[in-house]
Specification:
By secondary structure, this protein is mainly alpha-helical. It has a single domain, classed as MetI-like fold, CATH 1.10.3720.10. The chain has 15 helices and no strands. The longest helix has 40 residues, at 14-53. The protein has helices spanning 14-53, 56-71, 74-89, 93-123, 125-140, 143-154, 158-169, 171-182, 186-194, 199-210, 212-228, 230-233, 241-250, 254-279, 282-306. The model has no long low-confidence stretch (mean pLDDT 80).
């Protein structure tokens, strides 16, 4: 027989939380709706319309150029372009552009908030101690929970999906920006101070460049988490590849759901490889290039000796 917890100790946060949300909606509802309209009309709609209007061959050419510039490897760049072309061949090109626009806008907002907060946290132990439990809650709270207040404040559509994605995906960027700046060698900073460097010059010229691999890793995780939320976002009106998966679930159409899932995976891999390429610092990249050249020279010399 199941035991029952004492009824006199029962408590619930349901009523006070609902009252707080209702108060915010009553007093700031117009402001929130104005912000929703501004974000939609200024950022998301122009970007999505622009991506959907571009010829497919131009988009693939841009992907090829960006992938090659990030990885310096023609074969990998061609493979990523082939994956993107496969999404188009499955009839999902338009949905791909919608998902890409949603992820780009959400990531841009996360960067505008997350990197400054991470820099501030790196300079203040007090702020870091306050932020740590907040980021833990943001990162571990089920994503469905973020959709509830977003729906109440903004209604159905892409704006609540973007804001829920930002809240869910931003913590890794804040954490790794903080960690990257804190791990910059203190002797390097002291040397910069000895030359009369200002705090801004130290940040822009020394700390951020040296912390770039860590920041790019945080950005990479943020984008991956944003892509992981596109299926849930489709439940509240955000279209794109997530809508394809949701339709497959609702109609028990395994092929359709798998097709949308493959599109999301390919997009995630393409973004991940580009982010990883830009996250490698220049010295490491130069060492890899020199090592590759040395191996090629040794291999060529071996072939000549064999002849």
């Amino acid at each position: 027989m199941a035991t029952v917890f004492p009824a006199q100790s029962a408590m619930s946060i349901e009523a006070p939380v609902n009252r707080a949300v209702e108060w915010l909606n009553v007093h700031y509802g117009d402001t929130l709706h104005a912000f929703s309209a501004w974000l939609l009309q200024t950022c998301l709609v122009p970007l999505e319309s622009g991506l959907r209007a571009l010829p497919w061959w131009l988009v693939l050419s841009l992907v090829m150029l960006i992938a090659w510039h990030a990885t310096r490897h023609l074969g990998r760049a061609a493979l990523l372009v082939g994956g993107m072309a496969l999404i188009g061949a499955m009839g999902l090109w338009d949905k791909l552009m919608q998902t890409l626009a949603l992820v780009v806008v959400a990531t841009a907002i996360a960067v505008l908030i997350g990197i400054p907060v991470g820099i501030w946290s790196a300079r203040s132990n007090l702020l870091r101690n306050v932020l740590t439990p907040v980021l833990d809650v943001m990162q571990t709270m089920p994503a469905f929970v973020y959709l509830i207040p977003a729906l109440m404040f903004f209604g159905l559509g892409k704006v609540p999906a973007i804001l829920a994605t930002v809240i869910y995906a931003m913590p890794p960027l804040v954490r790794l920006t903080d960690v990257g700046i804190r791990q910059v060698d203190a002797e390097v900073c002291e040397a910069a101070w000895s030359f009369g460097t200002t705090r801004w010059q130290l940040l822009v010229g020394v700390q951020l460049p040296l912390a770039r691999p860590s920041i790019m890793a945080g950005l990479n995780q943020t984008v991956m988490m944003a892509l992981g939320l596109v299926v849930l976002a489709s439940m509240i009106g955000a279209r794109g590849l997530g809508e394809e998966v949701l339709d497959g679930i609702q109609t028990l159409n395994i092929g359709k759901g798998l097709q949308g899932g493959i599109g999301i995976v390919i997009l995630a891999i393409a973004i991940d490889r580009v982010m990883q390429g830009y996250g490698v610092d220049q010295r490491t990249r130069n060492k890899r290039i020199q090592a590759t050249k040395a191996i090629a020279e040794v291999s060529a010399g071996g072939h000549r000796d064999g002849r």
